Every structure is written in structure tokens, then in C-alpha cells.
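Justification of computing resources. Each target in the renewal requires a structure prediction run like the one illustrated here; the chain below, 465 residues long, is used simply to show the kind of job we budget for.
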Amino acid sequence: MDKLAEVFNCSAGHLSKLFKQELVNSPIHFLTEVRMERAKELLLLTDATLQEIAIGVGYVDKYHFSRNFKKHTGLSPILFRVKDRKSSTNEKESSWMRRISIVQRTTRRYISNDNDYQYIGEGDLPMYRSSKPSLTAVMLVCVALLISACQAGGNTTNNANDRSSYSAPSAVQNETSPVGNGNETAATRVFKHLYGETAIPKQPKRIVTAFHLGQLMALGVRPLGSSTYILQNPVLDTEGMEDLGVPLNLEKISSLEPDLIILVDAYVEMSGGYDVFSKIAPTIVIEPYYDPVKDIAQMGDILGKEDEAKRWIEEFEKKIAAAKQQVHDAIDVNETFTIVSFYEKSPRVYRDENMGGNILYKYLGLKPQQKVLSDLINSGQKPPYAEVSSEVVSDFVGDNLFMAVNEENKAAFESFKSTGIWSNMKAVKNNKVYTIDYDLFLQSDPIAVTKQVEILTKILIDKNE
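Resulting C-alpha cells:
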């Protein structure tokens, strides 16, 4: 809202009030309405997957999207699609629906991986390209996208204020990507990826990436540009990098003259398909592991920096071992831990995959609260968190509670703190509640994870001195 307010030269609060007066709904509720109506169109008029639709209407993953869709319509997206398509018997309409499908299917689909729900991005899918929407519709979408961009950008808290001074644990010097003079030896090799096999430079210098920004920078490589969301990573120094938008702007990418484009599947089809990228430069589509060691090893292979990747991994593992020892020396290792955030007014309890859960439970070897362990971590569910009601969230809270807070959920958190449920929690009574930056801990790249380890280690040691 702050950015939108700047456009209209007024305060965010005043703009929100005017918005609600004119359109009845608040900006956030208006945005939700726009997203849900767009999602209904995509469900009925295309054969896009839930993940593609979720990305297309601005949600981080299909699970988050599905929950909001069901809350809004009373039906899950799949049931909504099946019921409405079954009720339509018009063959002409069905034929038209197939023709405007937003996705050109290929024989290879990346849908079976356990991590595909975690692709991160926002934006719209390239649909109705031959139609001319009304000016009113265009204006509504523009406002919605501006609000969405404000939501995605967010404000960060003091944990991320030293972003410019923070560097990866690797000893590698950052290298720029200068324009070649045409005299370099065209040394290439064949790299196998999700869309086939592609000849890529053995040591690429001018790289564009949609997602793997932190992975590249951890090995000392500054790409020419990346997607909007990824450039908002609060621990990365992205000055001078081109914002390629979402969907990715093909003209911008072409103007950068890359010698390698690195994508994840979620960005390919929404931005025009694999072929359009491969005509600009050698393009590979790889799997994000959301694991620093695996991601660095993969990137070292791509960049021809296997030795640098090995050194980074060795230093990272030493850092983890040292942090674990420090924490275990400072606290009672039999104590239990829980990580919670708020979305709107619903608490989210996190597993051992992100938002610090991977660090507390896996790297530092601390104990999750018993119900977190049984109902979330050992449940086999895919989402990295579970939404629970405020009335039962205390059942998941252990001896220590980490609250992930940002500007978007701060009001809900502050409101919850005034309840008896909050004041009766053991962690609250014993003053063992810690606040962490939601936006920083949402990141999963190696540099961000390393920073997260430092923050959590310091919190636990300082609190127990």
C-alpha cells in the first residue's frame, strides 16, 4: 500500500480508507476477489495445473491457493473445476476452451517432485492474448498487481539491516559478468536438465536466473538479472541487477545478451515457453532443492566451479557443527521448540523445512514440540506448515516459541497477544518467546540460510547466558 500511496501522493492509511469507501472492500479483500475471479476463469477455461494457476494469480504455492479458494467459494479448486465442466455439454465451448489453454503441454512434466509446491513467484499467466479487455478491467488488474507487488515486497525488520555487508561463507571473490569481445574460445558441454539436454558454456559469464540468485552469489557470481520476487531477498546485495519481472520479460533478457539462462519450471510456461528462451541463449531448467548443500553442489556443476562449491559446503558444515555445539552448551537440549506465524488471523505452525524449522530441528538438533513432531513432521504432508485455529495453537507450543513476524501479519500477532490463550502459554510465562523476521526466514537460498543460522544461534545463546 505504501508504494501505491506514493503514486497517488497520499498516506497508505488515507488511501486504504478511500479505497474502502469507493469499493466497499478493503484493498486486501479487493485483491482477493480479483485473484479468485481470475482463478475461476483459469480453472474453467484452461487445463492448467493448480500450481500454475496459483503462481498465475499471485500465491506462493498451490496449497495456500487451494485453502483460500475453498474459503472463498466453499469448494476446492479441483471440485469446482470438475462440477462446472461436467455441467457443460456444449462441444463448441469445449473446443474453444481447449484452444485457449494457457499451457502448451509437452511429454515431460515436472509434477511428481515433492518440492514442486514450493516454487516462488507471482504474476499472471499469458492468456487471452488476442482479446482486448476493457479499460476498466485493465485498471482493476493494474491496481491489483500494484497491491500484490506491495504485499510481496513487504518491509523487513532489523535482522536484515546488514544485507550489504553480509557475504557467503565461501572464500570465493565475487566476479562480474563482463561483455565478451568475441575472441573467447567457445568451450561448451552438454548439460542434462528437466527439458532435455543443452550445450552450455563450460564457464558461463553472463547469466540470467529466475530463481537461483542466492545460489549463484554464494559461489561468487553476480547474475545480470533475476525475477522481481527473488530480487527482494533481504540478505542479498542486488544493486545493479536487472529486474526481469514476473512473468519474465523476454525483451529485457535478450538485451542483456546472456550466455546462459537458468530457470525453474514454474517460470517457463508463464513466460512464453522453453523455446522462446532457448532462442535467446542456452537455457536450462533445473530443480530447486531448498537445501543449501544440494543447491550449491548443483550450481557448482553448472558453473564449472566444483572446487569452490566443495569448499563452500565444507565451510557451511563446519559452521553448522560449531553453532550446534554452542547452542547445546547454552541451553537445556531436552526443551522443546515451536515456530508460528500468522496469515490473516489464522496461526501457522511450521514443520522442519523452512521458516527456521530446518535449522532448529535438523541443523541444530533441537526437539520439536511433541504435537509438532507427530501431527506435522511425521505426518507425511507436503506443505511446510499447518494452519490451525487460534483456540488450539497452544497445543502445539513447546517450551520455546519463535514467532515469525512481518508488516503484513504484525497486527494479527499483536491482537493475539492480548488474549488469554497467549498469556497462558508456558513459553510466554517463562519469557521464552523470540521474534524472527518472516521475510528473511522465508528465503531458502544458501546465503539466507547461513544468515538464519547466525541469527537463531545468537538468539538462543544470548537468551540463555
